[in-house]
Design brief:
Distance between the termini: 67 Å
Oligomer: single chain
CATH superfamily: TerB-like
Number of strands: 0
CATH class: Mainly Alpha
Strand content: under 5%
Length: 169
Amino acid sequence: MGQDTHSSTASAETETVRKIVHALDALDPNQARYIAAFAFLLARVAHADHQISEEETRAMERIVQQSGLPEEQTVLVVHMAKAQNQLFGSTENFLVTREFAKIADRAQKLTLLRALFAISAADRSIATVEDNQISQISSELGLSHQEFIAIRLEFRDQLAVLKNRPQQT
């Protein structure tokens, strides 16, 4: 007997997002789901190099708090998103991104993309692995390559791949 894959994928909501949404039960469920997925994706990029720095954590908190959450809820959301990503990121990354793609409009997806670059630039250097992760997320969200490049250009001074290039004379 095979597992019913339809029932496991019928809802785009993942266990990871449900745990964070539960912590935000005072919010409208759709807003909580959006914030939970947004925070998880920030953690996905921050953890791309297998560590989440203090600078990245603080940047995540600043960005998530812009959603209007009180500071204590913001800290909880970021902590949970980081923990869930570190524990289940390899299995949840695509599912959470797919869910975000379904609930976010184009402007929200572009806001997320800009936030992903801001998180990876928090330590003043966007590692190639982080850049690649952002590119993958951009693609999973259905954003065009041109949209990805346009936002990436805003952070070109922090791209590690460009920092290590020999200077032209």
